[in-house]
Every structure is written in structure tokens, then in C-alpha cells.
């Protein structure tokens, strides 16, 4: 302990240091033991480059607690997803073939003005051509949306479970189903609004008619007059005015109505409110064949095939769905797993109490704790000793002052009184000297008690925090 300390004092310091070491060691181990017991223990198991079969086994065993890190974090959807739309049967029938349309209208008079203005033969070629264009644009628009999605990147740092993977793809495909028709409908609506807003006269003369007005003998004015259809609907106010499509015989007022066919301000606008009922009805097709002088027979659309749309569904509604009956989506999770190629999978579990872990932690800590306490305990004892001697010196300085005061007072008293005071002072000094060790012991006891209380307080605090978090 130092050259300035005698052997007796050094021995006493060693005793106090040993006692302090034992108390602190036991208290610290007790706190660490309680903390280790109540603290959740995290256990991690790693699996390097598991195969797909082994991964499925791990997924069934550990569930969502299994985490796998991908070796490649970005890949395109077309490597593990296939999307194929199934379109309405009319878009794959002969009714949208250019050669069939030309053969059908070949028997009509090239000069369509020979037909009555409200004869459907004026609109027949335009309607079939418009149907062909709508199917082509719908198919192209859908395929573009699908290609855009399939060539985009899926970015995942961790491997998605099969359920999460399918849910994410289902959400994305639903967005395609919603967005693609909206974009196409907006484009079509904008085109129609421009045509109607500029009051462009149809080449068929079905929305506006020229009227000639003579002004005097030298001037002639030509002005336009809007055509009126059913319910007094004027093409000058609305492009959606229509009437029933009919076939009119020459030199006769007989009108033969056609199922689901509408005529109106323009062929395109009237076709949107028409239906495909005539394409499903053999008698309706026979009428068209007869009045167009078509030599071959026309085959109606099959009604035996299950369709999402009924025959009386308008063309406008079909366009809003891009003529799509349904979407066929195939997801290959094993291909996604191969693309991700996880380098490591890990499972983390939390154990609240493990006796072997607790013993291991305590044995691992006690070595370092022993070294620290062996180093710090003697220093604490020595610091306490210095504090005690400092207080002792203050006490010794006070006693001579009391003696002088007593001696100065004795000059005014008798010799007997002086002798009595000196004897009392001497006995007090002897008692103080004899009480040096007991007072030092009481100081160390107080220090030990305070340290012990602090240890207990820390332990109680740890327990309180743990249960508060629970």
C-alpha cells in the first residue's frame, strides 16, 4: 500500500479492501445475474445459400421470422411473370378482317348517296372499319401497358415470401387493368370533343346539311343546318343524337330495323351506343348479306362461349374495358427465387431465460469484474483512510484550543480547579485517541451500506424498466 504506511495499518487496509471486494463482487454478480435472466436473449441461426426446396422447409418451420438477403436486388418482372389478356371474341372474328369487310361492301353501290340518308348501308363500312380500328388499338394499348410493366424493375433487398410476392403482383396487375382503359378512353373522348367542338361536317352528311338561300338575283348563300334525330335531339347541341338503324328498300318506304344498330350524327359516335346483338343473330346477318349482295354466308358470334359481356352491351362499355374478357396471370415464384438467389437466410428467436446462457455470461464477466475490483477496492479504502485522517487532524486542532481556554480561565481560579480541568482534558484526549479506530470503522460501514443500497436500487430499477416495457 505504500512505504509511508506501517504494517499494522496495511494489514487493516487489506482486511477492509477484502470486505469491500466481497460485497461489491457479490452485489455485482447478483445484479448481472438478474439482468441476464430478465433480459431477452436473441438467438440467430444462419443458413448459407439454401436451395429452393430447403427454403420451403425453413419457411414452413420458421414462418415470417425467416429472413433471406438477395444476392441480386433488382430484376425485371418478365423473368417470373406472364400476363396474357383474353379479348372479346369479336376482336378475333372475321368481322374485324380487312379482306372480309372489303368483300362485304363490294356489292354496294360505290356512290353511297343513292341510298337514303337514314339507310344503314351508308354506315355499314364505316362501322366495320371503326370496329376493326377499336380492336386493334385496344390490343395495342393493352400490350404496351403489359410490356411496360414486365420490363420494369422489381427491387427487393430481402426475399419476399410467396404470399407477399403474389399480393404485390396482384396489386400491380390491378393497377394495369384500371389505368390502361382510362388512358385509352381519355384519348378517344378528347378526339370526339375536338370534332364536335369544331362542328366538322361528316362526309356522310349526317350531322349537318347545307341549305342554299338566294339573296336577290346575284347572291346565293349556303348555310348549315343541324340534323335532328330521336327525341328532337340536335347534332348542333350534342354529338350523341341517334336513331334506330334500318335497311330501306329502293323505291319503297319499307324500313327493316337491325338489332342493336344505331345511326346518328357521325358513324363513330353512333357506333359507340350500338351493340353487337346483330353479330350474334343469324337472321340479322342474313339481312345484311341480302341487302349488300354478299355471296357467302355470314357466321354469327358464338353464344355458347362464356363471356363477361352480354350481347346487348354497348360498344362504349366494351371500349371502357378495352374489349378484355379476363386477364390470365401466371406467377412463377421459383423463378423469382432463382433470380434473387439468397446468399444467406437467418432465423432470429428471442428466449427469455436460458440457464446455460446465463451461466456462460456470468462466467465470462466474472474474470474482468475480479480484475477491476482488485484494482479499485484498495484505492477506495485508501481514499476513505485519507478522508478519515483529514477529519482526525481537524479534531486534534480543536482540542489544544480548548485546553488553552481552560488554562487561561484557570489563572482566575484556584489551583485545585486548574488541576481538575487538566485531568478532564487529559482523559478526553485519551478517549479520542482510543475512539480513532471505532470511528474509522463506522465510516467504512456507512460507505459499504451506501454502496449496497445503490446496488439494490440499480437492481430494482432494471426490474422496473423490464416490466414497464412488457
Explain the overall architecture.
The protein is of the alpha+beta class and 470 residues long. The protein folds into 2 domains: 7-39 and 367-469, no CATH class; 81-331, no CATH class. The chain has helices at 7-38, 52-62, 98-105, 121-150, 162-197, 267-272, 277-280, 282-291, 315-320, 333-340, 355-410, 415-434, 436-469; strands spanning 41-48, 66-70, 74-76, 81-87, 153-155, 208-215, 219-226, 228-229, 233-234, 242-248, 255-264, 324-331, 342-351. The strands form 6 sheets. It has a 3-stranded antiparallel β-sheet. A two-stranded antiparallel sheet has the order 3-5. A hairpin with a 3-residue loop joins strand 8 and strand 9 (233-234). The longest helix is centred in the last third of the chain and has 56 residues, at 355-410. It is elongated, with a radius of gyration of 52 Å. The relative contact order is 0.16.
